[in-house]
Amino acid sequence: MHHVHVDAWSRGASVLHRRDPRAKIVALIVFLVVLATTPPNAYVTLGIDAALLIAGILIAGLPLASLLARAMIVLPFSLTFGIISWLAGDRWRAIGLIEKSYLSTAAVLLVIGTTSLAVLINGMERLGAPRMLALVTQFLYRYLFVISEQAQHMRLAAQSRQGDPRVHRQGRFRAAAGALSILFARSYHRAEGIHRAMLARGFKRQFPLLHTLHFRSSDAIFACLTAAFLILVRIQ
Amino acid sequence: MTPLIEVRDLHFHYEDGTHALEGVNFVLNAGETVALFGANGSGKTTFVLHLNGVLHGEGSIRICGIPLSKETLPAIRAKIGLVFQDSDEQLFMPTVIEDVSFGPLNLGLSAEEAMAQAKAALEQVGLDHALNKAPYHLSAGEKKRAALAGVLAMNPEILLLDEPNTFLDPPGTNNLIQLLKSLPQAKLIITHDAYFAAAVANRAVFFEKGKLVAEGTVREIVERFDWNYPDFAADLRYSAQRRF
After folding, report:
1. What is the phi/psi pair of residue A167, to 5°?
2. d(CA A44, CA A54)
3. B residues 98-127 lying closer than 8 A (beta carbon) to A
4. Pairing of strands B5-13, B19-28
5. Block means of pLDDT (10 residues each) for chain B, length 244 residues?
6. What is the ipTM of this complex?
7. Which among B74, B97, B115 has CB closest to A202?
8. Structure letter (DSSP) for residue B191
9. Is B75's Cβ below 8 Å from some Cβ in A?
10. Which chain B residues have a beta carbon less than 8 Å from that of A198?
């Protein structure tokens, strides 16, 4: 699973791993804004942005090919809209959609591959992200594995009673819809169970933090230098 | 001597009108380990969820002499540790050490103190090698141990365990029995497993349709209710020879 690999990457100890999450989030936001406002045919700017990204991946010690391959997860979506734009006669819009979505995903992967989720969410909260969003993200990430495992078990159970897959196609769709509804119901029950487990260990509507964040001068220099470099390249 | 748990005339019904508990009386003393038997839906888990205030029924509950109420809940949750049946529900933090520290941090300990208690608890359950592992990388037995460590890190006086050997293979169950026997806390253990109960408990109670209908030794309860096996006495002699 994708998030298992990314989770393992985030436990590294490179200079990028050691940066405060707020510095990385600020740098990421500047990167995304610069990328979004760059014309699709500004190949030099886009090339420098991509080179910066690759340098970041190498400095962090993350597997370059694996990360770039995982960033392709966005392509089925951006390619669909890209093809629609191309067919509508807007060639540059199509190219822009694909190249920008791909670079954005790689940049996000670089940040979450160098920051553990708990620390990243802590940083998001400190920067003013809504607490509810942070909590939902954390739980979604934690239970993605459990829910997908349940889905796989249900799929196996369905397959073992399926018989010839070429017949009863309509029945298979109905079974898939039923499985989805059961998955929702189970997730709801699990959420109740988790809440009970949290209450039983003294949860007071506030997530306690084991690791406190320290924003050092090196973090400020990192965020400022990255942002300044990106903006300079963009306006040149 | 004040009982650690004292429940008097506890009643509870769910919102749909189902009567889950009807006039339950129960006492747990220091040093005791009590097995809680009963069929599915007989009210065992509902009863246990009342003991640390997750559910609220009518009646009197005193934990270590403190009457359970909204005001005393933080003090009571520090004294009573609840280990859930499904460890995945209990291990909700990204890493084992963060999860085990969750309880101590909620008790108001500093990050350093919480970390120290979490490490000690993980060492106690033999999981000190897995501090930074994600919970989904643990085996079923390790998850159970991590969940238990999460409770032990809060230094409770009482342990409540809901079917602790579910999903465990026989070696995992044997390890858990050894671990539970080594813990000094009083324990109330929901279980369907007569062997497991015989290995860890010195008393048993039986729930039926929301009522506590009998109590005695594990053997008495198992034989009276024909629980698990028809020839439990012979099996028990066999189990006594096994390495638990």
Report:
1. -100, 165
2. 15
3. 98, 101-103, 105-107, 111, 114-115
4. antiparallel
5. 93 87 95 93 92 91 93 89 88 87 90 93 90 84 91 93 87 89 94 91 94 93 74 54 49
6. 0.76
7. B74
8. -
9. no
10. 92, 102
Pairing of strands B58-63, B5-13: antiparallel
- Inter-chain CB proximity A210 and B98 less than 8 Å: yes
HSE-up of residue B224 (Cα within 13 Å, Cβ side): 15
Joined tokens for residue B7: 């429940």
- Chain B hits for A197, CB-CB cut-off 8 Å, are 82, 84, 89-90, 92
- Tell me whether A188 touches chain B (CB under 8 Å): no
Chain segment A59-84, per-residue pLDDT in tens: 999 999 999 999 999 999 999 999 99
Query: Would you list the domain boundaries of chain A?
Result: 2-115+212-235, 131-200
Length of chain A: 236
Amino acid letter, A227: A
> CA-CA distance, A81 to A159, in Å (whole number)?
34
Chain A residues 111-150 with CB within 8 Å of chain B: 116-118, 138-139, 141-143, 145-146
Q: What angle do CA B157, B158, B163 make, to 5 degrees?
A: 150
Written as one letter, the residue type at B174 is: N
Contact at CB, A196 and B54, closer than 8 angstroms: yes
The answer to whether the CB atoms of B84 and A208 lie below 8 A apart is no
Both structure tokens of B56: 């609220």
Q: Do A202 and B101 touch (CB under 8 A)?
A: no
From residue B19, give the alpha-carbon distance in Å to each of A182, B12, B43, B47, B209.
26, 6, 9, 12, 8
Residues A201, B106: C-beta atoms closer than 8 Å:
yes
A13 to chain B, any CB pair closer than 8 A? The answer is no
> Considering the entire predicted model, what is its pTM?
0.72
- CB B188 within 8 Å of CB B136: no
Nearest residue on chain B to A117, alpha-carbon basis: B94
CB contact under 8 A, A193 and B134: no
Q: What residue spans define the domains of chain B?
A: 5-241
Orientation of helix A169-200 relative to helix A131-160, angle to 10°:
140
Does domain B5-241 fall under CATH 3.40.50.920? My reply is: no
DSSP state of B210: T
Candidates B240, B189, B143, B148; CA nearest to B44 is B189
**In this structure, are strands B80-83 and B158-162 parallel, antiparallel, or unpaired?**
parallel
- Which residues on neighbouring strands pair with residue B36, listed in sequence order? B190, B205
Q: B152: nearest CA in chain A?
A: A201
- Single-letter code of the amino acid located at A195: H
